[in-house]
Design goal:
Layout lengths: L2 H6 L4 H11 L26 E2 L2 H7 L11 E10 L9 E11 L6 E7 L11 E4 L4 H17 L3 H14 L2 E9 L2 E10 L8 H4 L6 E6 L7 E8 L9 E8 L2
Antiparallel strand pairs: 1-6, 2-3, 2-10, 3-4, 4-5, 6-7, 7-8, 8-9, 9-10
């Protein structure tokens, strides 16, 4: 199945929004946080020849064609920071999604374990969904910290990212390690703040890059989410958060 094929198998937008609103306050729902007064400026234009609505693939796709009920999807998480005195310190942990049968063959009830250590957060469950909620969970986590750091409204940044996903995401084919070999995947890149009206206020954080690597061959489709704020001096990133699929 091609990336566009599974991306186009969308749940109805209204049902999707209702399902998310029930489990994640202020969830990262397409169209649910648009505000003219808070709207960010245009994201950086796509530079690759392939362009797609990343939100459609991440939030509306059928992600469990290779993840049967009873599967536990596991993701490693690592936050690394260059200067822990200025930003939230780094840490490592895991995210687990336990899949139970949904009302249709392509849907699951998802029980979430968002970290097992001191950073544990309550999240979910997600009932009768076809999509993998990992992107929603990690973006909500990231944007909460991002807004506190910059003194902004999380909805402002959500809107900027959603606009970038829809209008300016670049896509390139990549190889993803799976088992003893590699499978085809796609990496989507979004730079939502580079043309933002508040760029000066955001300083180096206006260069934050969001990369989503997906493959229909990976159980749960999402292979990696990498959020990076590069350092102006070209050294180690100021902040980087990497969520990566771990095979059982």
């Amino acid at each position: 199945m091609s990336m566009m094929e599974f991306g186009k198998r969308a749940v109805a937008a209204a049902a999707f929004a209702i399902a998310l609103a029930a489990v994640v306050p202020g969830a990262f729902v397409p169209g649910a946080f648009v505000s003219v007064a808070e709207a960010a400026g245009p994201a950086a234009p796509a530079t690759a020849t392939t362009k797609a609505d990343v939100g459609e693939i991440l939030f509306e796709g059928e992600h469990y064609l290779k993840a049967a009920p009873g599967t536990v999807l596991k993701y490693s998480f690592e936050r690394s920071v260059r200067d822990p005195d200025k930003v939230k310190p780094g840490f490592k942990d895991v995210v687990e999604l336990t899949l139970e049968p949904g009302e249709a063959a392509t849907k699951r009830n998802v029980i979430v374990t968002l970290f097992k250590g001191p950073q544990h957060r309550a999240a979910g469950p997600f009932d009768n969904v076809a999509f993998n909620p990992t992107a929603i969970l990690m973006l909500e986590l990231h944007l909460g910290d991002f807004a506190k750091l910059l003194g902004g409204n999380p909805r402002y940044f959500k809107n900027a990212i959603r606009t970038g996903m829809r209008e300016a995401a670049s896509a390139e084919p990549v190889k993803v390690k799976l088992g003893t070999g590699e499978v085809d995947g796609t990496q989507f890149t979004v730079r939502p703040y580079v043309n933002d009206p508040q760029k000066a206020r955001m300083a180096a954080f206006s260069e934050t890059v969001y990369r989503f690597t997906v493959s229909p061959e990976v159980p749960g489709v999402i292979y990696e989410i990498r959020i990076t704020t590069p350092a102006p001096d070209g050294g180690a990133p100021l902040v980087e958060e990497v969520t990566r699929y771990v095979e059982n």
